[in-house]
Amino acid sequence: MCAMRQADDNMTNDTMHEDGTGKSAGYPGKADNVVYIGKKPTMNYVLAVVTQFNSGMQEVTIKARGNSISRAVDVKEIVTNRFFPDLKEKSIRTSSEELINEDGTKSKVSAIQITLARPN
Amino acid sequence: MCAMRQADDNMTNDTMHEDGTGKSAGYPGKADNVVYIGKKPTMNYVLAVVTQFNSGMQEVTIKARGNSISRAVDVKEIVTNRFFPDLKEKSIRTSSEELINEDGTKSKVSAIQITLARPN
Question: Domains plus CATH for chain B?
């Protein structure tokens, strides 16, 4: 399974803004209420999620691939335990994505998608 | 959030068997159909899950804490994509667990619990 680990190292964060919100191209169908988790400190992404909810979003989705998946779960736990205890966990989904490495070989990497929603 | 990362480094795998199945003390309510993900190669844990299903289990739960969470998702993806495409994802739950470090301080670590089930 080295390939899978390796794929993660080849990932670039060039589609990601400073605060973790994706606003440029790279992911299809991206919206403002998606926070992409990368290799920055966890609290950066926690702040991004909290900011989204404070700006009136009903739902925020946290997405991560490869080794960042653990950090995505950390972000979800910190946001729901410390900042918004009333948030509902709408869904947690996992998937596999295929990446093309620099040398042209393909490798699969796991991904997670956690959607949090305000209570109705 | 250094504390959370640090907690993971302090984790020991002494409650885990070679194949990732937990059969000794440490986790409350543990059963044979639980595979605990540690720092071994991903395929060790994939094999553990596959073995459980082949031995007749209807459900297998994959559990991980801290940095191993990403590996737990890898295991789930490999088992469902490559070995048992018919398996149902019964639940994915995340939680926070409190650990006591060697110096007596407490730190929180995220955990994940993925339950896969045979189709009815």
Answer: 3-117 (3.30.110.20)
